Amino acid sequence: MSDSFNPDQWFTEVWAGDGSSFSLAIEELLHSEQSEFQKIEVYRTSHWGNLMVLDGCYMVSDRDNFLYHEMMTHPALFTHAAPKKVVVVGGGDCGTLREVLKHPDVEEAWQVEIDERVTRVSEQFFPALCDKNNDPRAHFFFGDGIDWIEKAEPSSIDVIIVDSTDPVGPAAGLFNRKFFASCLRALGDDGILVQQSESPLYHTHSIIKEMYSEMRAAGFENMHTLPFPQPIYPSGWWSCTMASKSVKVREFRFDDAKQKAFATHYYNAELHQGALALPEFMKKALANL
Ligand code: SAM
Questions:
Q1: Which atom in ligand 1 lies closest to the alpha carbon of residue 122?
Q2: Around Cβ 53, how many Cβ atoms within 10 Å?
Q3: pLDDT at residue number 4
Q4: Is 163 a catalytic residue?
């Protein structure tokens, strides 16, 4: 560690289970509060813009959130034939909702976030992520996504995006067959579920494999995981997992993605095609699940 290291000038998230940690040089703590659900902190960093932390875990930084929000949204929406109604479970920083609303044919986009304070703090410190919150197609419900999806009209949703925290606390119930069965019922026959599925390096043989078996137990037939870089999350390598009843989630509207009329910084048609290719260890671990 360099001799200039001063712990007071760094935010560090320790990932004890795998003996790793990640630090960002900080300049100031801009906000701190204990909401009904979690501790919410916002720091100004020296090189990564503003940083939101929930219960001590990195959530979103100005500098690298585009990787996550784009990959949580565009692969699924270009895999669906014609998404009109999209629901984001979690996603309180509004970055995923913003990406969904870039798709002109989407008619209704819901954000179902259990903790309203996350959204209000994001509106204050991450205005760019919230710049589509006044879109007339955007709808907000602050409550448990598990209940909301359970009560959703059957076959009423085209894409469900689960942009949740790690599978602990209020998010634990978003990773089991009961919730996935609710998703299956709420989705149309050509519906797509996409869920943040943690780190390929740390979680392929645990959380990701468990997600596949829980999704299959719930009735999903096709699952596929797309790894992507995400520096601030543990291991710096993250993933989303798509699931469907009948849609082949390894095929997508390549030409529509190629000709997309909106800007992105990471996602494009060729990148999507490449992200469908799994590393060898993941192919082996996830085969025949
Ligand atoms: N990108 C982050 C990640 O991969 O860890 C997730 C970002 S977003 C801030 C995660 C959100 O999920 C949090 O705001 C949290 O309040 C919300 N959340 C957790 N459990 C939930 C539930 N059961 N229903 C709705 N939102 C939930």
A1: 9
A2: 22
A3: 64
A4: yes
